[in-house]
Structures are given as structure tokens and as C-alpha cells.
Amino acid sequence: MKGYGALAFAIGLACAGIGPARAWADNAPATSTTSTTSTTSNNTGGDADMRSRFFRQRLASAHAMAREENYRNADQAFAEVFADPMFALLSDSEQRTALSTAGWMAVKLDKTERARDLYRLATSYADSDPDDWYRLSYLEYDLDRVEEAATAFTEVIERWPQLLPNVDESHIHRLRNSLDFDSPVRLKLLQALFDANWKTTGGGDSAAWYSLAVARAERGDMDGVRAAVRRIDDPLDLVRLRSDMRFDAAIDADASAFDPLLAAQRRVEELHQQTGLQPDNLELRMQLTYALLTVGMHEEAVALADRSLAAVAEAPVDAPAFKDIEEQVWVMNNRAMALRRLGRDDEALAEMVRASQLTEDGGVNVSQALNLGTLYCSLDRPVDALQAIDKAGDAISGFGRMVENNVRLCAARQSGRTRDARRALAYLRDHRDDGQAVYLEALLRAGELDEAAGQVMRQLASPEDRGGMLEWLQGYLLPEPLPGDVDARAAREALLARKDVQAAVAKVGRIGRYAIYGDNTSF
Question: What confidence tens digit (pLDDT) does each residue in 232-279 have?
């Protein structure tokens, strides 16, 4: 199409350092001419005025179609506008607005690359808009250009830090986790978040500060490490700090600020206050159930979940109790977790069954289907476990596939199906980077202690993976194992007792015991 060709030409110039106005101006008609007669001059002027007016009519029409959500026709109309040399005569603000609006039309039409190209152009103007940079970041990510996505998002942080409370926190974490561990772009993103004093209601900023502390430690910047660790307040992030020799010079293990139990208790108090201030926010209540699980306040977690779910059920359909009702599946998930730890296994199972029957973000409930399968595995009910995970569908993340195959491994071993067990373990081994803790737990379930020890030592030797492995190795509060987990629990104890594992730990850190529940993701 003609419009796309002209746009591609402009993009090429923009990427070479020439702004879009220059790109289109090179093709623009001359703004003045020398005429031999007044009649010719007047006619030329009149023609130019008519062309300009008609061009602006077409531009107005494109914007009108966009406002009416006539995406396809608006997309075509904007393409034709961009192909017209007169586009270069518009003000920078008008050009940027048109490019931005056209980009949104392309998004709505699932033309991801075209949308990305349009937003790249829109963000090249001096008066670029934060929404354009934000959308560009998402589009770059969807096109597997993670560094470009992080660069665009960093622009938002550095130029408009006051907007950080409005961004989707999950996008920050997926950028942080997708970028290469030693990438300068990753460090710049983390530092920009730090300089902007990013703070989340759910406590997710602590993970970013831990990542920043590790990055600074690997670069030998102890002043930077000390600054980062002062903001870390998640209990398990603090466990990582305390167990890792890299941070010995940066923390005081005896200080209350670095005590995981005190941090967990502070988190409960903070979330109690926040839920009172935002009574229609179900996500905060869900986060509070997690915090209560961490400190072992299981009765309180069940009571909070009951109140929240009753409010969902009893509210009028035109006046819902919460603005984010989709979080109810996770409230139910955590209610089941608390019931399990209270020894009320039948009630826990019934709640997980109910949770798995609800949708997740409007689609198939992958998470609760997999969690239900995990619970059935722990209960030594392999047939039910397989039936549960079969309802997860095909739209499963890499980590979800790891959980799925761990359940398949468990069910196969419980059923005596050796070939199926080998197949599941082979998948887990080949995709271990998608979920290293899941892989390690699968090795314990399969009784592969030598391989498990090798996995532990590899992760401890890796600057990137060390913190996660040290966290996994620590001692936490645990409920009595369910029948299907007894052997795996014993295998873990045998792994920790191995001299080669203990020697590997001693080189980089230490193993301690903490009066908190360390794993709120499994039963």
C-alpha cells in the first residue's frame, strides 16, 4: 500500500538520525515560487490553499473515524495522509498526534509491527507523550525486542516519574526478568526506578531493589549496594541478603530492618491499613492473605477470604463490592492454602476445585487448574491430578509448562508408569531455565539426588541464580507433608545433608532457619 511505503521511508530516515519532519519535508512542495504574471501567482496560491484545505479535511476525517472506533478505515485514511507531502507542513504537535492516533488504530487491528513503527516516530518529537512511550514499550516487548522495550520504558520513568503509580507493575517485572542479567539496559532501568523512588502497594518494588543490589555487587559498587538494600523489605528478599556473602558488608543481620519475621509482620500491618483506605480493592486483600500466610496467621487468612468472597457474592450486580473482582480466584487459592495448613484438607480441596471453575482474567483458568493438579498430586490422587491439569488448555507460559510436567511426573510415578515419568522429567530437564525451582523439586520427587546436587551447585556458582538457590535452601516453617509429598520431603533433607552441597554453600553463603513460611505457591 502506498501509505505504508511512504511511512517506511520516513522510518528509515528517522532511524538514521533525521527526524520525521525532515523526512517528509524533503518531499514537500516548495513554499514559494517565482511567477512571471500576477495571474499565474494568484492561481498557484489559490490551488495551494485548496490543496492545503483538502488535506486538512482528510486529516480531520481520519481523526473522526478514529474517535468513532472505525479502526480499519481510519488506519487507511492515516496511511494516505502520511503519504501526502503536505504532512510535513503540519506542526510537530499535529504530526505527533496523528502518528500516535494511527499507532493506536494499528494496535486495535493487531498490526503490531506497524503500530511499533508509528509509535517510534511519534516518540521522536520533542513534545513526545508518555503514553506513546509506554505503548511503544509494550509493542517492542511483544515483538521480542526486550532491550528496546526497556529503553522506551526507562524514558517514561526518567521524564515522567510522577506517572509511575499508574503503570502496570507486571510489565516492570517482566522487563527486569527478561533482560540479560548483566545488561547495561537492565541496570539503567533498575536505577531509573530507584531514582524515581518507585513504590508499589503490593510490595513488588522490593524485588527490583534486590536485583539492583545484585547488579551493583557484581560491579563492585558497595555504596550502590548499601543504598539499594536499605529499600528491601520483602521477607524472602531479606532472606536472600542474609544468606549471601556478597551482602555481608552491606547489611547488619542483627538490625530489625533486616529481620525477615519482623518485615513480614510489618507487611501485615501495612496491608491492613491499605485495605481500610481502599475497601473496593480486592488485590490488596489478596496481597494481605499472602502476608498472613507468610507469618502463619492461617485462621485470619481464612476469615479475611470469607469476608471478601461473601462481599463479592452478596453485592448487587450493578454495584460490585470490588473494582477488580477477577482477583477472587487468588483469594480462593490462598484460602485453600490456609485451610491445608490448618489440616482441613477436604475443605482446601473443595475450595481449589471451585476456584479452578472460575475464569482467570476472562479466559481459561490456567493457574488454578495447575494448582489443583499439584494439590491432587500431594494427596496421592494421580488420576484426578491429570484430569485437573488437562483443563488448563494450551495457552500456558513456560513456567506453567514446568508445573504441568512436574504434575505429570508425580502422577506417573504414583501410577507406576515409568515411561511417562521419564518423558515428563526429560521435558523438565530440557526446559529447566523456565523454572529452576520446579526442576529441582522434580528431581527430588524422582529420587535423582546426584543430579539435584549438581543443579544446586550450578546455581550457587551463578551470580544470577545464586540468590534464588540460597533462598530455596533455607529452613522455614512447614506443615506436615501430605501423603504424596513424604518421599520428596525426605529427599530434600538428604540433599541438604550431602557434603558436596554443604561445601558449595559454604563458598558463597550460609543456611539458616526462619520463623516464616517460605513458600506460598505450593501445598
Answer: 999 999 999 999 999 999 999 999 999 999 999 999 999 999 999 999
CB 478 within 8 A of CB 517: yes
Cα gap 144→159, rounded to integer Å: 24
- C-alpha distances (whole Å) from 152 to each of 32, 112, 256 are 39, 16, 38
pTM as predicted:
0.87
HSE value, Cβ hemisphere, 13 Å, CA-based, for 25? 12
pLDDT, tens digit, for every residue of 111-124? 999 999 999 999 99
* Residues 6 or more apart whose Cβ sits within 8 Å of residue 521: none
The rounded distance, in Å, linking the Cα atoms of 348 and 265 is: 25
Phi, psi of 379, rounded to the nearest 5 degrees: -85, 5
pLDDT band at 156 (very low <50, low <70, confident <90, very high): very high
Element (H, E) at 475: strand 475-477
Say how many Å lie between the first and final Cα of the chain, rounded: 56
Pairing of strands 475-477, 513-517: parallel
Crossing angle between the packed helical segments 92-108 and 112-122, to the nearest 10 degrees: 160
Cα–Cα nearest to 428, from 470, 450, 399: 399
Measured CA to CA, the distance from residue 258 to residue 229 in angstroms comes to 9
